[in-house]
C-alpha cells in the first residue's frame, strides 16, 4: 500500500508543477469598518467547472469579524444587483456559546422585503424554477477566537472572534432568481449587515432578520468570476490586510495583472500540495477547460437537464488552500472609514437633497412669485419667476448628474421616471421662452402657452412621486416617508388654494378696467386682456365694478404695461 501511495503522490506532485495556469487570479472583498455598527468581513471567491455534473461551482470563504464578543447582529452577501431575486447567504450566531456554531441561512426575496428561505417564496416553487435552484453544500460554519494580525487602524481594536464559513454553491450560474454568469468579468453582488439585532438566543435557520443599517449597512460588489476559475476545486485564501482583489465596488474590475496571475498560480500549487499531503483522493487535474467559458454560456441557455451534483458521488473532494499564501497586490486598498460613510453614500444624500429642494422649494416658489399681487404691482413678477425657475433647473440638473455618475445601469422605475422628468423640464424651458417671445409679438397666448401650463402641472406630482420612490430605494423608515407624504399633501393643497385665490383676485380687480379698454380698442382685441407673462388659464371677469373703479384700474394697467416694457428692454 505504501509504495502505491508514494508513486501516485509523486506523479500528482510532478504534474502539478507542469500544468500551466493561465487565468486564475485571487478574488476577495475585504471591508473593515470596525465595531461601530458597520460591516467588517472578508469574502474570497473561486469557481471550478465540475466535469462530473457538467456545471460551474462557486467556492466561497467568508470571515466575519466580531468585536467585544458581541452576540448580536448578522452579516450577509448575495449574488445579484439588488435584493429582489438575489441568492443570499445570511450569517448570525453567538461566538461565546459552548458550541459556537454559526448559522448560515440561504435565502432570497421578492422585493424590498425581509429575506425568506427559498422554499417559502412562491415564485421559487413553480415549474419555471424547477432544476434552477443551486444546492449549497456547507463545509464549515463556526466561530473561533481571533488570533490573526489585523487591527483596525483608526479604532485601534482587534476582533475578539471571527466567524468562518466555507461553502460551495453547486451550479450557481443556473440560479433562476436573477442573472448570474460564470463568464462575467463584473458579476454584481450585494452585501449587508446589522450589528445590533438581538436574536434572544434564537439562531434558527429561518429566524427573521431586521432591516440593515442605512448608509454603511449595505453595498455592492462587481467580481471578475471569469478569471476566478481554478483548475481544481479549492477555497481561496483570505489576506485580511489586502482589501480588494479581482473586484471593485463600482464599475468593472481591471483585467488581471501579471502579479495577480502569479499569485493565483502560487495559490493553486499550494492547494495541490495540500491535496497530496492530506491524501484526499483528488486525482490529477485533467487539464480540461470550462466549456461554458468557451461558449460564453449564460444562465438562460444553460442545459437544465444536467444534474448539479446533488448525489454525493458527483461532488469533488475539496482541498483547502493554506491561508496567507497569496501575495497582496497593490491594485486597490481596503475601504477604511471610521464612521462607515463612503463618498458614494454621501453623494446619494446630496442627490436626494438637491432634488428635494428643487420640488419642495424652488419650483413652488417660482410659481408663487408669478402670481404674487405684490410682485405684480412692482413689475418684478416675471423676472423673479424665471430667475427662481432657472435656479431650480440648475439644482435639478446637478442632482441628476450626480445620479448619473452614481448609477451603473438604467434598470429601475425611479431612474426611468427621473429621465422623463428631465426631458419634460428641458421642454418646459423651451416652451416658456417661446411663449414669452410669441406673446410679445402677437399679444396673445399660443398653443405653446397651454402646453407649458399643462406640462408644469404634470411635472410637480411626478417629482413628488419620485422623491418617495427614491426614499424607498434607500430604505428610509415608514415614519420618515409618512412625514414627507404629509408635507407633499400640505404643499399641494396650499398651492391649489393660493392659485385659486390669486385667480379670483385678479378677476375682481381687472374685470371692469379690461372691459373698458377692450371697448376703446374695438372688436377683436379680447386677447390683449392677458398680461404677457401670465401662463395660467384665461381669467373670467365680472362686471360688478363701477365706472370710476374701471377708469382707475385702466390707468394702473397702462402704468404697469410701461414698467413691463422697460423690463423687457432690460
Automatic annotation (TrEMBL):
Keyword line: Electron transport, Membrane, Signal, Transmembrane, Transmembrane helix, Transport
Highest taxon, organism lineage: Eukaryota
Gene Ontology CC: one annotated term: membrane
Record carries keyword Electron transport: yes
Region feature (Disordered): 279-311, 537-570
CDD domains: CDH_like_cytochrome, Cyt_b561_FRRS1_like
Xref: SMART domains: B561 (SM00665)
Biased composition (Polar residues): 293-303
Keyword Signal: yes
Gene3D superfamilies: 1.20.120.1770, Cellobiose dehydrogenase, cytochrome domain
Residue stretches of biased makeup (Acidic residues): 537-546
Domain Cytochrome b561: 350-471
InterPro entries xref list: Cellobiose_DH-like_cyt, Cyt_b561/ferric_Rdtase_TM
Major location category of this protein: membrane
Localisation: Membrane
Protein name from the UniProt record: Cytochrome b561 domain-containing protein
Gene source species: Knufia fluminis
